[in-house]
Amino acid sequence: MPEIRDCIVLHGPELLPMRCARFAWKHDTITAMELGAPCTQLDAGGLVVIPGLTNAHTHMGDSALPDGATGLTLEQGFFRPDGYKYRELAKLTEQTHLPHLIAHLRYMARTGTVRHMDFREQGAYGAALLRKAAQATGVDSVILAQFNGVPFTQGELRANQIGFRAADLADLDELLAVADGFSESTMNDLTDAAWRELRAITNSQGKLRAIHCLENAGYRDLSLATTGRGDLIRAIELYDPHLIIHLTVADAAEIALLVRSGKTGVLNPRANANLGLPLPPVAALLRAKANLLLGTDNGMLNSPSMLAEMDFTYKVAKSQFGDAISPDPGAILKMATSNIHAVLGGDNYGYLQSGLPADFAVLDFNQPQLRSTRHVTASVVTRVTPEDVLATYRQGRELWRDTRFVTAP
Ligand SMILES: [Zn+2]
Fold first, then answer.
1. Least buried of 237, 271, 341, 388, by fewest C-beta within 10 Å?
2. Mean pLDDT over residues 323-330, rounded?
3. For the segment 101-143, what is each residue's pLDDT rounded down to a tens digit?
4. 267 C-alpha to center of ligand 1: Å?
5. pLDDT band at 330; cut points 50, 70, 90
6. 404 CA to middle of ligand 1, Å?
7. 392 near 402, Cβ under 8 Å?
């Protein structure tokens, strides 16, 4: 059974750094964690074992177009039917597209990520393509598929009366047969009747639901103009999503609504900044005790590295708190690890404990910028670079291993 000796482990859902004489796993399960004293500082380096990271919001479909949206607005770059992303995706074949997906999932593994939750365009075909990349790499792709076409005309959306047609329901059946759930760009893309149908159909099949809300004020304004209500309240009441993405411009009442609903918010601060949008209210959401996750959003906008996302988010949050004390860096690390359990349940713990799945990454704290850290968790969040990730395992399967890293026999 492979093992690591004399390391530091971030233990349990609170991610407490502890000395660990022996960390062992067999097949897909952690079989031993011989814990010693808490350990927040290092004097002469060491190996640090962290839970495998969750990237809770991606669009890996457009990872084929890195920085392709440079100089474009959100609407020009990303909206159906004629945004740059959709025009370019339509030109790709499986042969030209799949290698980009595989390469980016490998990059995720190389940067400590074991799982991502993807808004996958291109209907059932798009979902199946990402499934192939997940199978090739071992990274867990939680696939939230969307319609390939736009089911309603602008006039139908404004009237907000009709529900899905038979052809839309057939498309939905087809994509849910491949995907883990459904996603849509905005609440303004479907009618209220369609949202209710989606909720019932996905519920009956045990599928996940996700939606972008409040990415910019336009989402709220258009929803108000069409239906008299903002996009967040409509999402919660009509669609009951497991994940609400962005919340970039959420005001105090909307933050209170999110927390009352018990829904999980997924923040993407680097993507928001890259599009010239406001930064999400990380501090206000943390103060309100919202369950939060982090994502890197479009492959066009960002590399899918949670290391970069955590560093940026921590500093944005510190600036917003404005007191140099809050938040605890552990609160940011939980957004990439243990906060996932409330959403996915099952074997998706996002933390390390004997008897749980062997989903972890090994970090090389012998590197010069890490070896004498005065705060292990802060350094995991802000100083670890891709070169410092020695290995990543999901359910005991090696997704990435640097040749520098050898497990004890
Ligand atoms: Zn997105």
1. 237
2. 96
3. 999 999 999 999 999 999 999 999 999 999 999 999 999 999 9
4. 10
5. very high
6. 36
7. no
pLDDT of 317 reads 98
Distance 276 CA to ligand 1 centre (A): 15
Range list for CATH 2.30.40.10 in the chain: 3-52+351-401
Distance 46 CA to ligand 1 centre (A): 37
What is the share, in percent, of the chain residues with pLDDT greater than 70? 100
Intervals of CATH 3.20.20.140 along the chain: 53-344
Domain 53-344: give its CATH code.
Answer: 3.20.20.140
| Percent of all residues in the chain with a pLDDT value above 90, rounded to a whole number | 96
How far away, in angstroms, is 144 Cα from ligand 1 center?
Answer: 11
- The answer to whether residue 78 scores a pLDDT higher than 90 is no
How confident is the model at residue 82, as a pLDDT? Answer: 87
Q: How many A from CA of 398 to the centre of ligand 1?
A: 28
Q: Tens of pLDDT along 40-75?
A: 999 999 999 999 999 999 999 999 999 998 999 888
Q: Which pTM does this prediction carry? A: 0.97
pLDDT at 353 over 90: yes
What spacing in Å lies between the alpha carbon of 277 and ligand 1's midpoint? 13
Please state which CATH class domain 3-52+351-401 belongs to.
Answer: mainly beta
